[in-house]
Amino acid sequence: MKIIVFGATGNTGRRVLAQGIKMGHEMTAFVRNSEKLYDQLGEHSAKHVKVIVDDIMDPVSVGEALAHQDAAIIAAGHAGQGEEFVRIVDNIISQCEFQPSFSGRVWIMGGAGLLDIPYTDLIGNNLPGFPPEYRNHNRNFERLQKTHLDWSIMCPGTMIDSREHADPVHLHVTTETLPIPIPETIKEYSETDIAGHLFSRLQELNVAYDDVAICMLDHLELEGAFKRKRVGLAYQSNITVR
Predict the structure, then answer these.
(1) For residues 232 and 177, is the Cβ–Cβ distance under 8 A?
(2) Domain for residue 43, yes or no?
(3) Residue-number span of the structural domain to which 115 is assigned
(4) pTM above threshold 0.70
């Protein structure tokens, strides 16, 4: 497939690029700094990537870059950038809508706080104690709900460099809800107590960057299982929920 990665030198984007090359896809990197990209990829991999160096906030440049692409993975920016982050995502999504030769398949990055908490009508990002900047992911989610595009939002917890597990692990993937077992009694908790419960279990949501990248690359087909879904990831464990 022809896949364009926005933010291809970031922690997530560069893993997406590297894994996509391994899978044999035609990868395009949209970046601000080509030297940084070449340093990260190495000479061999760099030969297999089309590089576009331009302003991610320029609608014309982004629109032209999307032409004839089968999928776009938006890994640019982060919630801490505030309004700039929201504008980056909105600009790319808008150009995905306007570019007639773009397929319409899009992945964007969110976070585990965007997922539904089972047995409640809550999401983590709206709970007391969660960093207010995380709500920028809520705004991007709202933007996607207004588009006709075939989108998915990847919602991992803390991403780590490698699987820090001695034994092989199974990746548990969910749609819309948190990927860890939640006790039904949580519906009786106050919002503050729910937040405390989730904070105490954050490590269960740690997931490797490469597993996040591979999951997105494995689900690029149009009309797939993750169409218009929030996607959660966690390593399956034997933790008993009380």
Answers:
(1) yes
(2) yes
(3) 2-237
(4) yes
Task: Enter the tokens of residue 236.
Answer: 């399956």
Beta strands in the chain (DSSP E): 2-6, 26-31, 49-53, 71-74, 105-109, 150-155, 159-160, 171-175, 207-208, 229-235
For residues 73 and 65, give the distance between their C-alpha atoms in angstroms, rounded to a whole number: 13
Give the CATH number for residue 10. Answer: 3.40.50.720
Domain count of the fold of the chain: 1
Domain assignment present for residue 145? The answer is yes
Show the tokens assigned to 231.
Answer: 């996607």
Beta bridge partners of 150: 105
pLDDT of residue 34: 86
DSSP secondary structure code for residue 177 in this structure: B
CA neighbours closer than 13 Å in the CB half-sphere of residue 4: 27
Pairwise CA distance, residues 150 & 106, whole Å: 6
User: 74 near 105, Cβ under 8 Å?
Assistant: no
Q: Residue 153 in 3-state DSSP? A: strand
- Cα distance between residue 208 and residue 239, in whole Å: 19
Residue 120 lies in a domain: yes
Among 167, 172, 234, 242, residue whose Cα is nearest residue 204: 234
Residue 242 lies in a domain: no
**What letter would DSSP give residue 173?**
E
123-151 pLDDT, tens per residue?
999 999 999 999 999 999 999 999 999 99
